[in-house]
Design goal:
single chain; mainly alpha; 2 domains; rod-shaped
Length: 137
């Protein structure tokens, strides 16, 4: 006896294959969304403005702040910004545009970065900055 397949049976098989295909595509999409969300969530917030928006010595100063925030957070700024901007340390100058418009902030950051990269201890950097900039520049 020969069995005849009905159209509805074939349609059901194609429908099942289509559903499985859609589930695979949906699962891949969810994995991709999770990966991009994890990457975004894992990215640390910026402590300073992006050095790429500046040029010359100003860019160099913002790069030092980005690369060594723990250093600049330990140093005083001698431009007077603690009084008119409420800054607590040299790093605060590079969280906003303030550092871009202040030669003292830029000079301190560049000097501190060069000294730090050459192995100078933080206390010696602090003393050098105070000596050079402590009297207004």
């Amino acid at each position: 006896m020969k069995k005849i397949k009905s159209k509805s049976g074939v349609t059901a098989i194609f429908a099942a294959i289509a559903v499985v295909g859609l589930l695979i595509v949906a699962a891949a999409g969810v994995r991709q969304i999770r990966a991009s969300t994890t990457t975004t969530a894992a990215a640390a917030p910026r402590l300073t403005l992006d050095p790429g928006q500046f040029t010359g010595e100003t860019r160099q100063a913002y790069t030092v702040a980005e690369k060594h925030p723990e250093l600049l957070a330990q140093l005083d700024c001698y431009c007077g910004c603690e009084q008119h901007e409420g800054h607590k340390n040299l790093l605060d100058c590079f969280r906003t545009m303030h550092g871009a418009g202040c030669d003292i902030c830029v000079g301190e950051a560049v000097t501190a970065g060069q000294m730090y990269d050459s192995g100078t201890p933080v206390d010696q950097i602090r003393t050098a900055l105070q000596t050079r900039y402590g009297h207004g520049g």
